[in-house]
């Protein structure tokens, strides 16, 4: 059963159509990511679910009840903000207890719940710190505990990991996913980071120009992008189209081939073959990225795992001729 | 090597010399003019007076303080002055908080400089002109305020404490609005959203979140309105009728009995010191 049903949602800011007709059903207990570049409308959709923005048209149902025009304080959802939005004048435990206090839950009960929430985000013992005394990652955890302690039907997360450094972000991705399984609450997660979306989500809604371009499981989004935008935004894609498609693949249309699916060097039993010159070599550690200019008139990117010691000399391959090959099954036609 | 060049190089090497050059003028102002006059005030208050000639006699006495603190009348003036200063501060805060909130958070960013300019325009006019304008409005029977209230069955309060409180509130309001505006502007939207998100209605958000976070700015504004009201005597003279505050007592005594006037003048100084010490903890002084 869908916990949230969004129908034909639209919102403009002045002349800009931020959200332009969005339909979205969100299942209870799922981790759904709204992915898109900045200005694509994903945050506006989240803010309309939270109640911070009023839509121009359309409706939002939560648990079968129309909440489109309810104020934020009457909605059974909670938000984790990008800048954490902790109350600077309250200590950690008062921040977490605030939602319960507003709901008039008794002092001892709310203290108990707040301490449990603090333990869940691994910050036991930080009860009496002020937000200003915490690191970015710790503030993020407090913000998470402050929202989760209310046990909302849906938790909204607005780029919550954006301000953290890479290592901490990756660690928080894992913890967030574990926490979601543990509490079983529906998470709606906004991000512009496609890698983050792929690793954490049950489903991803890819946004562009105020519309959902594709709504699917991460693997489907990556392997079978529904259009050029999704193909280009999620992962790196080689696009083959027009004359080149006819010449190389023998059929008209626009096709994508992911860089890791192309083999570099002597043609083996693969169905597609093309010759070209290696223009650029980038050594990335676990893999090497090659830019190969094909004689057919297109430049393709190839990603090769550095499985042998010969990878030490990859730089020497620059400007040498090579041939590329891939399976027909690796080509995917986009609209 | 020229003298100028030599001096420059000396200054470059010697940080003490650079700081002295930087602070010479402000320190002169602070120590000689500012602290110096306070010290003169204090010293004068412990001198005697020749009651026939009204000339100051430079002999130590505590009689002035004994007079001030033993006479019930001066105690009453002090309480009245405090009452007026507190009323002015409270009314200014009650008007300024929603005003500053609107200016900083609801008005479009483009119109904010215009609104700030509007708040400070009254400061461009002379203090006396404004107070005399209020005087004509407060005239019993024929003043503007009487004309306004009469149809409702009331009459102008005339000259007295109410007129003084309204006059002072009008004069000092910008000094309350500006610091609160600065404080409200720094408040992130997300903190207010977060409070609503956690279930708090607007009133609750105001008292639990907005007011405590902007409290230091409100205190900062109150330091202006409170101290300016404590020291005022011209408005009281023009709008107060027979009503008097500490400033008037100082003004009446300073040609006849300067040491006594000094002792009275020290009362608001003391009250301000107590006030500043008590609000220091709120962090308001970091906001000035």
What would your notes on this structure say?
The complex is a heterodimer of chains A (335) and B (288). Chain A is built from nine helices and 18 strands. Chain A is of the alpha+beta class. Chain A has two domains: 2-233, Rossmann fold (3-Layer(aba) Sandwich), CATH 3.40.50; 258-334, RNA polymerase II/Efflux pump adaptor protein, barrel-sandwich hybrid domain (OB fold (Dihydrolipoamide Acetyltransferase, E2P)). In chain A, strands 6-7-8-3-9-10 form a six-stranded mixed β-sheet, sandwiched between helices. Chain B folds into two domains: 3-45; 72-287, MetI-like fold (Orthogonal Bundle). Chain B is globular, with a radius of gyration of 24 Å. Chain B has a two-stranded antiparallel sheet with strand order 1-2. Classes of the chains: A alpha+beta (335), B mainly alpha (288). Chains A and B meet through strand 6 and helix 2 of A and helix 9 and helix 10 of B.
Keywords:
heterodimer, A: 335 residues, alpha+beta, Rossmann fold, OB fold (Dihydrolipoamide Acetyltransferase, E2P), 33% strand, elongated, B: 288 residues, mainly alpha, 2 domains, two-stranded antiparallel ribbon, 13 helices
Topology:
The complex is a heterodimer of chains A (335) and B (288).
Chain A: E1 2-13, E2 16-27, E3 31-35, H1 42-50, E4 57-62, E5 65-66, E6 77-80, H2 92-102, H3 107-120, H4 136-148, E7 154-158, H5 166-183, E8 186-191, H6 194-200, E9 203-208, E10 211-216, H7 218-223, H8 228-233, E11 238-240, H9 242-249, E12 254-257, E13 263-264, E14 272-283, E15 287-294, E16 299-305, E17 321-326, E18 332-334
Parallel strand pairs in A: 3-8, 3-9, 6-7, 7-8
Antiparallel strand pairs in A: 1-2, 1-4, 4-5, 9-10, 11-12, 12-18, 13-17, 14-15, 14-17, 15-16
Chain B: H1 3-13, H2 15-45, E1 47-50, E2 55-60, H3 63-70, H4 72-106, H5 112-120, H6 127-138, H7 144-149, H8 161-186, H9 189-197, H10 202-231, H11 234-239, H12 246-253, H13 258-279
Antiparallel strand pairs in B: 1-2
């Amino acid at each position: 059963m869908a916990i949230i049903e969004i129908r034909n949602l639209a919102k403009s800011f002045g002349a800009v159509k931020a959200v332009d007709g969005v339909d979205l059903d969100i299942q209870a207990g799922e981790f759904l990511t709204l992915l898109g570049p900045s200005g694509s409308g994903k945050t506006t959709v989240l803010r309309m679910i939270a109640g911070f923005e009023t839509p121009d048209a359309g409706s939002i149902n939560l648990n079968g009840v129309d909440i489109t025009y309810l104020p934020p304080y009457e909605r059974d959802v909670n938000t984790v903000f990008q800048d954490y939005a902790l109350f600077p004048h309250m200590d950690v435990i008062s921040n977490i207890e605030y939602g319960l206090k507003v709901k008039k839950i008794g002092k001892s009960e709310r203290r108990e719940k707040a301490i449990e929430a603090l333990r869940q985000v691994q910050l036991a013992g930080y009860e009496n710190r002020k937000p200003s005394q915490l690191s970015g990652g710790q503030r993020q955890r407090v913000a998470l505990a402050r929202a989760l302690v209310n046990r909302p039907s849906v938790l909204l997360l607005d780029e919550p990991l954006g301000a953290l450094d890479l290592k901490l972000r990756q660690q928080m991705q894992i913890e967030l996913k574990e926490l979601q399984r543990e509490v079983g609450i529906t998470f709606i997660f906004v991000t512009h980071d496609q890698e983050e979306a792929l690793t954490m989500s049950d489903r991803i809604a890819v946004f562009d120009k105020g519309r959902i371009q594709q709504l699917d499981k991460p693997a489907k989004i990556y392997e079978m992008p529904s259009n050029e935008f999704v193909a280009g935004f999620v992962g790196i894609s080689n696009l083959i189209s027009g004359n080149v498609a006819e010449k190389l693949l023998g059929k008209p249309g626009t096709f994508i081939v992911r860089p890791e699916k192309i083999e570099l060097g002597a043609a083996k039993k693969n169905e597609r073959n093309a010759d070209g010159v290696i223009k650029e070599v980038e050594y990335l550690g676990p893999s090497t990225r090659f830019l190969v200019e094909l004689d057919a008139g297109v430049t393709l990117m190839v990603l090769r795992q550095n499985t042998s010691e010969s990878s030490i000399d990859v730089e020497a391959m620059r400007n040498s001729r090579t041939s590329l090959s891939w399976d027909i099954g690796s080509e995917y036609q986009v609209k | 090597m020229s003298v100028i060049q030599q001096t420059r190089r000396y200054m470059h090497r010697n940080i003490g010399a650079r700081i002295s050059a930087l602070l010479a003028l402000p320190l002169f102002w602070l120590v000689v003019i500012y602290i110096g006059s306070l010290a003169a005030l204090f010293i004068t208050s412990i001198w005697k007076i020749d009651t026939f000639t009204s000339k100051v006699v430079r002999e130590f006495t505590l009689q002035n303080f004994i007079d001030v603190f033993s006479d019930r009348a001066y105690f009453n003036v002090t309480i009245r002055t405090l009452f007026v200063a507190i009323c002015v501060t409270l009314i200014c805060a009650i008007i300024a908080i929603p005003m500053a909130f609107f200016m900083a958070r609801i008005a479009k960013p483009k119109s904010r400089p215009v609104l700030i300019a509007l708040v400070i325009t009254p400061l461009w006019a002379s203090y006396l002109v404004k107070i005399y304008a209020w005087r004509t409005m407060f005239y019993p029977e024929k003043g503007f305020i009487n004309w306004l209230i009469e149809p409702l069955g009331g009459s102008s309060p005339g000259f007295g404490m109410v007129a003084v409180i309204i006059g002072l509130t009008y004069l000092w309001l910008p000094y309350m609005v500006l610091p609160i505006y600065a404080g409200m502007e720094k408040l992130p939207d997300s903190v207010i959203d977060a409070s609503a998100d956690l279930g708090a209605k607007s009133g609750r958000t105001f008292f639990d979140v907005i007011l405590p976070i902007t409290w230091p700015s409100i205190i900062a504004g109150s330091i202006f309105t409170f101290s300016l009201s404590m020291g005022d005597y011209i408005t009281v003279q023009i709008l107060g009728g027979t009503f008097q505050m500490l400033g008037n007592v100082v003004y009446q005594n300073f040609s006849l009995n300067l040491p006594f006037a000094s002792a009275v003048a020290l009362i608001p100084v003391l009250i301000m010191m107590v006030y500043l010490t008590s609000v220091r903890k709120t962090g308001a002084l970091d906001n000035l």
